[in-house]
Amino acid sequence: MMGPVRGLKKRKKQEKKLGENGSSASGSPQKEAPLDWWDELSKRIINNGLRQSPLKGLDNFQSVFKMSRKTFEYICSLVKEDMMAKAANFIFTSGKPMSLHDQVAVALRRLGSGDSLVTVGDSFGLSHSTVSQVTWRFVESMEERGLQHLHWPSTELEMNEIKSKFEKIKGLPNCCGVVDATHITMCLPATEPSSKVWLDHEKNHSMVLQAIVDPDMRFRDIVTGWPGKMKDWLVFESSNFHKLCEKGERLNGKTLQLCEGSEIREYIIGDSGYPLLPYLIVPYEGKELPEPKSDFNERHFATRMVAQRALVRLKEMWKIIQGSMWRPDKHRLPRIILVCCLLHNIVIDMEDNVQNELSLSHNHDSGYHQFTCGASDVKGVSLREKLSLYLNQRLPT
């Protein structure tokens, strides 16, 4: 079985100019402006049967790609060197070479629509093998060139901004993130040797994605590659994030003094599928809780919804990981998931308002029920109690 992707390694950042035009497959510079490029491609895909009705408030381009042209151009600038480095001679069935913009458009459409290689190929006038090759080249380039868009906050200023935004939601002080997990389901034949490995508790074949999210719904840390039958707390405990926290190398910033003699450290929050740890706070269990605890749970839940919405938007934007993927390569799937997370973050980093026009569902993991961990650490119990009393103004002054 393949090993999981545990967090992200730092790689050299690639300096690219925003809005750079690409080159044609033959290596000659593109002369068309992006508008002319889109006009030509949109006619081709309409002629090939992709008649996407514009969503309310969006033009045709935004409806097809679910992002602004500015964001699209930035993505092109990231992958330009890799996509155009080799003379792949990718061509449309008409014989016209594919430009950089054409290649990125095809890859984004494949990832964003979730349509089959054949369906995407037919709509663009390409063979399904060309769609596959172009998409994979894009994925390989993005996981190398776009990693700077998925990182844990590196400065005190950046972390303070995150804490401030979380506190504005429902008052939780010194909170640095929300952890949650979702299942990427797959269609695997029962005859496949590894079929049982990927069979989860809901009788689906799936791979799990764990994400730690900031208040702007940006992914700050991800883990993927594990079979979907692994419980949330086991995925978390296997993560590099957990190991760094245990070593005191993560969530180790300034403590916050709540009152004289009472202070709290940095922490993240999660649902009852996770253990209560000195740096991971979960809700109180039980019904008919006393007011301080029930109030804490309400605040905790409202803050936790940031991660829920982030995972919903991820799957709505990048539908290749929303439905059941048809016999995916389990070695390649974690890399596809990572690139979808990078693209999700890029849209946020570009302050792209197109995403705000998209309608979202309410559940990123429909059909899955919550397993309760129940494990707790005495320091975690103490931290949660301090937070509960502080939020209900019951700490001694």
Automatic annotation (TrEMBL):
Localization: Nucleus
The organism's place on the tree of life at top rank: Eukaryota
Requisite cofactors: a divalent metal cation
Family as reported in the entry's similarity comment: Belongs to the HARBI1 family.
Chief localisation class: nucleus
Pfam family, one: DDE_Tnp_4
GO cellular component terms, A-Z: nucleus
Record protein name field: Putative harbinger transposase-derived nuclease domain-containing protein
PANTHER family: EXPRESSED PROTEIN (PTHR22930:SF291), PTHR22930
Residues spanning the signal sequence: none
Keywords: Hydrolase, Metal-binding, Nuclease, Nucleus
Gene Ontology molecular function: hydrolase activity; metal ion binding; nuclease activity
